[in-house]
Amino acid sequence: MLPFTAWLPGQEGGNSVSDILIEMVTMTIPYESLASFNETASQWQVEGGQYTVMVAKNAADMKPLTSTVNIEGKVTEAVRPSLLPEQK
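Predicted structure:
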């Protein structure tokens, strides 16, 4: 699982910056959701590297909250090639 935490600005409750309510939101993204299929190796794998996670009200929101995470690459599932004959 890939944890992601963002601070969401709330509504102003007074006249100063310290009166603005802030909410922390944490969401967990299943690691396997980041995998893509490598046809040559016949496996699902996550490419390691730096990912940017963005959260917004909708796809047109021009000010998403962003967080950058570093992910270690690994194979999530190896499968037998379906178009090749079974090996004995």
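Summary: The chain has no helices and seven strands.
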